[in-house]
Amino acid sequence: MSALWSVGAGLLLLLLWVRHRGLEAVLVHHRWVFVCFFLLPLSILFDIYYQLRAWAVWRLHSAPRQHAQRVRHIQEQVREWKKEGSRRYMCTGRPGWLTVSLRVGKYKKTHKNIMINLMDVLEVDSERQVVRVEPLVSMGQLTAYLNPMGWTLPVVPELDDLTVGGLIMGTGIESSSHIYGLFQHTCVAYELVLADGSLVRCSPTENSDLFYAVPWSCGTLGFLVAAEIKMIPAKKYVKIHYEPVRGLQKICEKFTEESKKKENSFVEGLMYSLDEAVIMTGVLTDEAEQSKINRIGNYYKPWFFKHVEKYLKADRTGVEYIPSRHYYHRHTRSIFWELQDIIPFGNNPVFRYLFGWMVPPKISLLKLTQGEAIRKLYEQHHVVQDMLVPMKSLEKSIQTFHVDLNVYPIWLCPFILPNNPGMVHPKGNETELYVDIGAYGEPKSKQFEARASMRQMEKSVRSVHGFQMLYADCYMTREEFWDMFDGSLYHKLREEMNCKDAFPEVYDKICKAARH
Predict the structure, then answer these.
(1) What CATH code would you report for 373-478?
(2) pLDDT confidence of 60, banded at 50, 70, 90?
(3) How far apart, in whole angstroms, are the C-alpha atoms of residue 341 and residue 338?
(4) 3.40.120.10, 3.40.190.10, 3.10.129.10, 3.30.465.10: which CATH number matches 66-233?
(5) pLDDT tens-digit profile of 257-312?
């Protein structure tokens, strides 16, 4: 009873303090208070709900039986929209705050919302090595489902809450992408409900134009209702090798060299300054040296990027064996390194041991509760950007990031980009090695100004025939956007499938110049 009185008294004092300081002031200057006392427990409840739901679906095998019925309901909503005169654009009815993108989609308030409740794994075909899933299945959900069966995905993008639909309609990448390409390149078929309410399946051999146009289209060609994704055999561990490298030229040379080696199952780089980095390479294995196993995903373990930094500070190489699922979601607990700005003491051993099991807070809940003041603060003093550039332009691009942003750590992730039709492909006629340069945090550059600095970055990326991930803030004009992306197939299909009255153009949906 005394413990309850203590907790009650503590909460009362907290509420009095919040009232004294003002809720907005607390949310802006002491956000960790709100996150630790409210969002972390709420995030746990979210996880419990979805885990119980997934368990119930698995026990009852309801997903395959109900999928067709759910798709028919989506078709009925689209046909109803047509009967109403097609006066507004359509979009998914999923609230904007539930997406992982930091962008707040205001179009949800003005467009016709089509409710899409599709979040189940439908079928695992071991013979074809393909898994068929609905679009709201998350990476955490899918790896937890496949791993006990002995399967995994060739590309498992970071963060548990990323969904299959978001990774197809946007994009996704992981440290195995130097072998398999982007997430879209591991997909073998899509099923969509189009603007006329029809259901179509597309693949490289069936409705191939639509298959290649769907990735990066951000839901502006139709509603994704299912996808078929390649699987590969899972192994128990990733044997990971850490190597600190100093000097920008040496970092770029070493990273390029390792990225070209197909014997590396995984390649990743973390840059801690302009001339300091740790290059990591990994291979899948079922055997491990027991003394070198590091279960980095356990709640009490140090955040992965901090663990990696120890090798740089000690100036030594190292080898560890990380359980595969822990490796796939190694940056999840710290949301890469974003959580250190929200909970500054989050990597403290005391916090990890006592409260680490509650981390991370749901990104969707962070968005829902951020308020206008925090949104503007983040927009002007915070960047979350992934720029995809040819590997041959890596050194030049890092220098541009340093001058315009000066944000560290920087994430380096290589990927192979095939010369397929669609919005994103190499400039030449051959497959080319690219790299994702990810910057997440508060810029330290003295001349940083959100709009001007990002437009300069976008110009630099266009000049080397690179691409900007579309989940992030984009400041390009329409002409600049279609100079970066190849819109020929996309616009052709929008015309042929009568999408212009049904869905906004992708530029109008995601770019700030169009949304303001």
Answers:
(1) 3.30.70
(2) low
(3) 6
(4) 3.30.465.10
(5) 999 999 999 999 999 999 999 999 999 999 999 999 999 999 999 999 999 999 99
